[in-house]
Amino acid sequence: MILVTGGAGFIGANFVLDWLATRDEPVLNLDALTYAGNRENLASLDGDARHVFVHGDICDRALIDRLLAEHQPRAIVHFAAESHVDRSIHGPGEFMRTNVEGTFTLLEAARAHWQGLDGDAKAAFRFHHVSTDEVYGSLGPNDPAFTETKTYEPNSPYSASKAASDHLVRAWHHTYGLPVTTSNCSNNYGPYHFPEKLIPLIIANALAGKPLPVYGDGQQIRDWLYVTDHCSAIRAILDKGTSGEVYNVGGWNEKPNIDIVKTLCALLDELQPDPAGSYSRLITYVADRPGHDRRYAIDARKIERELGWRPAETFETGIRKTVAWYLEHQDWVAHVQSGAYREWVEKNYAAR
Q: From residue 19, how far is each of 24, 26, 82, 130 by CA, in Å?
């Protein structure tokens, strides 16, 4: 069995679904079910004995100790995190608690568990930490892409909290010998993405006839990674990764935000045309967020060279699958757009 934290969130849920679609090894899924965690993401696993869901907080050491003792997982895959930059600007405290204190709690529980194992079980144990390319800071237009040795230069409360958690994972390996791996991924997209992030927000707003907000000039560049490609990368790291190593995971798809928005409009025009005209008429430039990083780019050659992983999806195939999924699951979007979600959107965009 493996323990997955944050397995009801966007990437975590996709990982759990993908894992159980490709392997028979059971998953113990721990999630606090905050606004971004959604049991509906896992509805297809109802009744599947291979999926054990626990509603709980990664900061709860007693709970973590009990789960490790009871289920004896051979690996921990740590997704659980607060992850939205805008939310971290408005309220950084939760990011420090979950991303820093939560990771510390997990590491300490994992260390105690691992030290109590014998022989092959101890040798096989892994703690995999899922992080972000945002810890590396912002790139200029002609700078080389982020490698695993790039200096950390986080610029938001979110990226600073993830940088801190990365450093904790590294320290627990070097000080205590805990067998760890870390992956720093680029922007994910795909099914079950909570509609506060760019791609699902644009799709949801377009279908509702609402403005499509684009920060600043829309020329912020990101590398886009289809979520199931990220899942396959983590599986490769668990299977073949070297303890203590960091692997950058990217899609080889650098795109300005405004190009993403225009691509989404074109796909929606094709797949669900609006009688009022092209969805691009709804594009609205709004004030940029404070400290907005200009460009991220991942150099993913190490994971390809050492573990044989490359993304299977191009941006063109992945974004078409994503739009089609949202069109087929508009009930899911409606369910997650609760009163709390609407209040957040109003708070973040009204003054822009």
A: 8, 9, 23, 16
